[in-house]
Design a protein that fits this description.
- It is a single chain.
- This protein folds into five domains: 48 residues; 131 residues, GAD-like domain (Gyrase A, domain 2, 2-Layer Sandwich), CATH 3.30.1360; 256 residues, no CATH class; 108 residues, no CATH class; 55 residues.
- The protein contains 22 helices and 23 strands.
- The longest helix has 28 residues.
- Bound molecules: zinc ion.
Length: 695
């Protein structure tokens, strides 16, 4: 430094002449200003590089450790502390509803109703002087709930104008049978309780439910799953629509008998959850006393990670969705825990609050035309949090958007924010917001809009959800989407939501009843699984066999005809499944007609493989006589000798003019020619063998 100064002085003294004055001044100015110039560039450079939402989203996904399900291993789930349990709901097959004599299983179209009833929810203090969180949330939504009632399937009980009739004994016995199959300890007396149901899906605000058994166990092929309990309960209404402040339900399903099987959180990876769920569903179906079809079985899946919270994914309609849903949920919680650490490092939750400005009319974009009130909201220290990865294709801002829809009734799209991957606002509009809100470097902001009356709830909802981010994972129920992600549904109901039903007397269960029901139990699912395995039936057909409860039918056919189990298992689990999907089957398909079919083939000394040709016609016309089916498919009897006599002719035809014969091609070509004639008249594998001998 000193050397430089010395050189500079020498330079100055030597060249300080008139001509060189300007040069020297230029040099002086450069040495003086250049550092400022660089400093200035530095600032500009920092601003330009300041923040990229896309980069932040990608980076936060990486930091969360997210991997697609295909790449995840047990080690991945162990590191996250994956824990999951199930609540499996299954409708029982009864003629009547659970607490009244209305028919069960009669459904109406949305517009088919005789009366409408409108209700509003209002929270009241509990006996302990507290408000339930769900009740408060539902009250905030200011929903007007309409129930559409059809005389055919609802009476005054469903709308709480008549006390309950005695519990449906048929439903009770079905449920007890399933409880025993689950190896639960059956209660001595059935106590009917009321479970608070505040989302409006039950007009009374509660569901009548009774625990039938506790502490059971299911033996899956590779692990045991413990059961907490099994209850019998009434089903809720079906939602027709939920737009803004109006929600409409129909009451056809309301009050239908249902069982709920609750497991401990014993599943340690997503596949295991699906396996356990299938097992419970198959067990229920093995009794033949439950309803099947869309909506007859629904699952709530509870998931948590290490340090997370039990989050309930409600009403999963397909078990095949479970692995992706649970995988994404456990990572969502993991991401929320990372956000928690980021926020707590930046600031303290106690001092944190939003600030907002009314900017109605300020932004002139098509989305906000007729938007009502438009508010800009500043979220201090939320930069990088808004675009933080949460689930595939979702970021933290989506958590806010989900709550705004449900709690403040702001329909989607309901949010513009500072970290959108595809910004909806131009530079000018963004600057207008920045001038209004004056956000700091680490702040984020949102724009929301809607009816003026909804704004206080909307602002409160934003502040509440952002504050929750300092604590990690909020307790909530979430709705499943077909892409394997979830959205906010409700605040998780409090623990104190059960109280005795003063309208019902306890029902004693005597030992004789239990013994009688226990005498007719189907064999255990694990036994059926092992039987199929020992018979060599391929494992990929089990799901169809169990889900349609075809195991008893399979046993009956084997018993009556001596057809190999592998053949019948594959016929029912693969060929029948294909035919049902491709030949216009109507549900419910009368599977039991297949046992007389095989009996008839045996009686007429026709080979059982003929059933494969008959299947498309039987599936399309299940009431058609089997003789007519045979005529329809053009079946003709041919002696085995006559069929085999074709082989030499076909062989010479195939070989004509060829040098070098592909034996496999030749075999397939000839089998293709003879298959139709042979089917039913002789065993195709015998034909194949005879052909091979002659080749
Ligand atoms: Zn009724």
């Amino acid at each position: 430094m000193e050397i430089a100064t010395l050189n500079e002085k020498i330079y100055c003294s030597v060249f300080l002449t008139k001509k060189s004055f300007w040069l020297t001044l230029l040099y002086r100015m450069t040495t003086f200003f250049v550092p400022f110039l660089f400093l200035n560039l530095g600032i500009q450079k920092r601003t330009c590089m300041s923040f990229s939402s896309q980069k932040n989203f990608n980076e936060s996904r990486k930091q969360t450790g997210y991997v697609p399900r295909k790449e995840a291993t047990q080690k991945t789930y162990d590191q996250l502390g994956f824990m999951s349990g199930l609540e499996v709901h299954q409708q029982l097959l009864t003629n009547e509803k659970l607490f009244c004599h209305c028919p069960a299983g009669i459904y109406n179209d949305d517009d088919d109703f005789n009366a409408e009833i409108v209700r509003h929810m209002r929270p009241t203090l509990s006996e302990l002087g507290e408000y339930d969180g769900t009740a408060l949330m539902e009250f905030k939504t200011r929903k007007e709930i309409t129930y559409r009632i059809n005389n055919e399937n609802a009476c005054t009980y469903e709308i709480d104008d008549t006390p309950p009739f005695p519990l449906n004994r048929e439903a009770l016995e079905h449920a007890l049978e399933i409880s025993m199959l689950c190896k639960l300890n059956i209660v001595g007396e059935v106590h009917i309780t009321r479970k608070q149901y505040l989302d409006g899906s039950i007009p009374t605000g509660f569901q009548r439910t009774a625990i039938l058994g506790i502490e059971g166990e299911l033996e899956l092929p590779h692990k045991k799953i413990r059961l907490i309990q099994l209850s019998i309960e009434e089903d809720a209404c079906r939602e027709i629509s939920d737009i803004g402040h109006k929600r409409i339900y129909k009451t056809d399903r309301l009050g239908m008998p249902l069982i709920e099987t609750v497991t401990y959180p014993d599943c340690v990876n997503p596949e295991e959850v699906r396996e356990a769920c299938n097992y419970i569903r198959f067990l229920n179906r093995s009794t033949g006393k439950v309803r099947t079809g869309i909506g007859a079985g629904r699952e709530d899946v509870n998931v948590s990670c290490k340090g997370g919270t039990r989050v309930e994914i409600k009403g999963v309609a397909h078990t095949k969705w479970i692995p992706e849903l649970t995988h994404n949920e456990v990572f969502r919680q993991w991401a929320l825990l990372r956000i928690k650490r980021i926020l707590n490092k930046r600031t303290s939750a106690t001092a944190w609050k939003i600030s907002y400005q009314d900017i109605s009319g300020l932004l002139r974009i098509p989305l906000l035309k007729n938007a009502g009130k438009v508010m800009a909201v500043k979220l201090p220290d939320f930069q990088g949090v808004l675009s933080h990865f949460i689930q595939p294709g979702r970021m933290f801002a989506d958590e806010l958007s989900g709550r705004l829809k449900v709690i403040a009734c702001l329909e989607h799209p309901n949010l513009i924010h500072s970290e959108e991957l595809k910004p909806q606002l131009g530079k000018e509009d963004r600057e207008k917001i920045i001038r209004k809100l004056q956000p700091g470097e680490k702040d984020g902001w949102l724009v929301i809009w809607g009816a003026e009356a909804d704004m206080p709830t909307a602002l409160e909802t934003i502040e509440e959800r952002c504050r929750m981010a300092f604590d990690g994972v909020p307790k909530e129920t979430r709705k499943s989407l077909p892409d394997g992600t979830t959205v906010f549904e409700r605040v998780l109901p409090g623990a104190n939501r059960m109280y005795p039903d003063t309208d019902s007397i306890p029902i004693p269960l005597d030992d004789q009843d239990i013994e009688r029901i226990g005498q007719h139990l189907p064999e255990e699912m694990i036994a059926r699984y092992n039987t199929l395995k020992n018979q060599g039936v391929p494992e990929d057909v089990y799901t169809f066999l169990f889900s349609k409860n075809l195991f008893p039918l399979m046993e009956k056919i084997i018993h009556e005809t001596d057809i190999p189990p592998v053949y019948i298992g594959t016929f029912l689990g693969e060929k029948l499944k294909f035919a049902l999907h491709h030949y216009g089957a109507r549900w419910p398909f009368p599977f039991k007609i297949l046992s007389p079919l095989f009996a008839l083939l045996k009686e007429n000394q026709l080979h059982h493989q003929l059933a494969e040709s008959m299947l498309p016609t039987i599936v399309a016309y299940p009431k058609m006589e089997f003789d007519s089916v045979l005529t329809a498919i053009g079946f003709k009897r041919h002696p085995e000798k006559e069929i085999l006599a074709h082989i030499p002719i076909l062989l010479s035809k195939f070989r004509e003019g060829k040098i070098g014969i592909d034996k496999v091609k030749e075999h397939n070509w000839i089998m293709g020619h003879l298959r139709k004639t042979a089917l039913g008249n002789m065993d195709l594998s015998v034909l194949s063998e005879k052909l091979r001998q002659l080749q």
